Amino acid sequence: MFTKSVSLDKLHSFSENTIAHHLGIEFTEIGTDYVIARMPVDKRTHQPFGILHGGASVVLAETLGSIASFLCISDPEKVAVGLEINANHLRPVKEGYVYGKVTSIHLGRTTHIWDIRITNEQNKLVCISRLTVAIVNADR
């Protein structure tokens, strides 16, 4: 499914000076049809009541889906941009790490749709997200 072979170190270099880096998101695994990353649950990602902020989960989900689209695009004149994202937050998390795994739902010529499941350290589902990415010309 992925048309590019990229190391975890290369993925981390893409995140420098981005919101993903600020939140501590780390890519941990690249499979043939999935990518996994983890994100700390701490003061960077808490909401005022001391639990994981839903927006942080959405950043993790969009980061994973965007990277997955990047890995699928073979045309150097095309780039992936987020078009729509939704998320259902199912379980609070106070500390530790959450893990996100992205898999494809649809890979078309102009859109990609991704399923992102975020779990806690006990592998319990924390958030389900779906991201739609538009594939557009890089020079637009």
From TrEMBL:
Coiled coil: none annotated. InterPro entries: HotDog_dom_sf, PAAI_dom, Thioestr_dom. One of its GO terms (molecular function) is 1,4-dihydroxy-2-naphthoyl-CoA thioesterase activity. It holds the Pfam family 4HBT. One of its GO terms (cellular component) is cytosol. Keywords: Hydrolase. Residues 49-127 form the Thioesterase domain. Belongs to the thioesterase PaaI family. PANTHER family: 1,4-DIHYDROXY-2-NAPHTHOYL-COA THIOESTERASE 1 (PTHR43240). This is Hotdog fold thioesterase.
